[in-house]
Design brief:
Helix content of chain A: 25-40%
CATH class of chain B: Alpha Beta
Distance between the termini of chain A: 61 Å
Low-confidence stretches of chain B: none
Radius of gyration of chain A: 21 Å
Structural class of chain A: alpha/beta
Radius of gyration of chain B: 21 Å
Order of helices and strands of chain A: EEEHEHEHEHEEEEEEEHEHEHEHEH
Largest sheet of chain A: 9 strands, mixed
Number of helices of chain A: 9
CATH superfamily of the largest domain in chain A: HUPs
Structural class of chain B: alpha/beta
Number of domains of chain B: 1
Oligomer: heterodimer
Shape of chain A: elongated
CATH architecture of the largest domain in chain A: 3-Layer(aba) Sandwich
Distance between the termini of chain B: 57 Å
Mean pLDDT of chain A: 95
CATH topology of chain B: Rossmann fold
Helix content of chain B: 25-40%
Strand order of the largest sheet of chain B: 9-8-7-10-6-1-4-5-11
CATH topology of the largest domain in chain A: Rossmann fold
Chain lengths: ~300, ~250
Amino acid sequence: MGDILVVAEHLNGELADITFEMLGMAKSLGGTVNVALLGGSDEMVGQLGVAANVYRVDCGSDYNPESYSAALKAVVDAKSPQVIMVGNSSMGMDMANTLSAQNGLPMAAACKSISGGGNTTVEAGLFGGKINVTSDLGSGACVVTVAAGSVSADDGKADGSPATESIDMPATDGKVRFKKLIMPESADVDITAKDVLVAIGRGIGSKDDIEVAEELAEVLDAAVAASRPIIDAGWMPKSRQVGKSGLKVKPKVYIALGISGAPEHLEGMKGSSTIIAINTDKNAPIFDVAHYGMVGDLFDVAEELTEALE
Amino acid sequence: MKIVVPLKQVPDLVEDLDIDDNGISLDYEYLKMKLNEFDDHALEEAILLKESDGAEVVAIAIDGDDVDKMLFTALAKGADKAVKITGADPYVDNHALAKVMADAISGMGADLVFTGVQSAGDRDGQLGPIMAVHLGAPSVSVVTSVKVAGGAVTIEKEYSGGMMAEFDVDTPAVLGIQAARQTPRYAPVSKVRQIQQSASIDEVAAGASDGAASSSITKMAHPEKGGGAKMSSDIDEIVAILKEKGVA
């Protein structure tokens, strides 16, 4: 097994959970685990105790797709790792694909497990989590993006003082320029603070239909949350979004109405104490993570539930 | 300004997905395919920019089943030109697709290429940033807002937890669109039919797709059902659970 390079992800001055999840996963592969810390701070190095070496590149404290991708390429070219692990995230998507294309390395996306020794093989949940796909990336260098929540972040958390090495930042064309970080809009309701969430997904056909969820939420003193399609359609504000690009929630009870359970959504809610799912598709992946399920039309079920609770 | 939008069909995830007898690919024979929803957002954002700033919008796809209909629908929505690439497999992985697309797009003089940020079967990565490397252009993924400003665009890129960042990006550039500013428009069948009568689809031959790094699928399987949910068909049971958890 060659060396493993974990690309640390950080946002707004803090290492993201996915960094530790990748370290946890990398540890079990059997090779030497090193970290590429692009930008980042001295303080972050101390949290990367799982790593043997931390390679640092001074590419600015704020993420920039162009400069961070160039910095990663510099580390990979200098250190020739076998498995390069990047988060399956907004930043990781830029860096991993760019590296794979620039260096001609095979790549697998959204992986939930990796095994090394000989060829690197990975498993990913694709097609909205409906199909598990195993890929063989060969015995040479490869790029793997790791789906968040595949392992516990605690597995990769360890304080320590790994050896650090600075790698020169290569010149870039400066075609992408960071302007500013935009913090989340202040929300009318903090969905992360609610005991009960009534979450709606694609099964809701129109904006007017949201009313049925609001009525159920009212009798439960709950807030209405939503999966990405509802937010992208502009039917609810971003502050209500649960999932990969939204918020992580852990309410006592999460009622999922018409949510199929794509991995990106599960990432944000699978820590809920009790999950109740209602969906017309009995094979919807949401039923795999839910504790209780009901196959049925969300409108019928929500209305009956509201009546029964009133 | 010219905006090129590659379009791709993906399996409709609402349907059951069957695995081919070979165990390493989907059974496409009875699979219902639809336009990748993120590509629909990419097309919408391009048409919105055309309406606000003036642009020529070109929709491009690899030839295959129902591709004409997909391209005519794009024209009906407001694209100015449709191009199909002939002689290439529409179901290739993204590394190969990126090469074929980049070959076809490189001579077009595009200022912007909008791809859907991802698609349902992205096993080997995402189309946009890979294609950008072939085109020698900068790329940004997960874009939710694009404003034109001279020889550059000001964009917003989404992170997690509702955080975003603003960047200026020189054109030509490849942007992976997460969501258009508004819900993608719908083209009525009558309008698509009308366009079919009056417009035509340009054809270009595919270049070689070899040389792209690849990996092989060794197995496809439906996820094993874990413990899974305790299924109920009785509302009273759900009410009882809510009461037991102390929330009702």
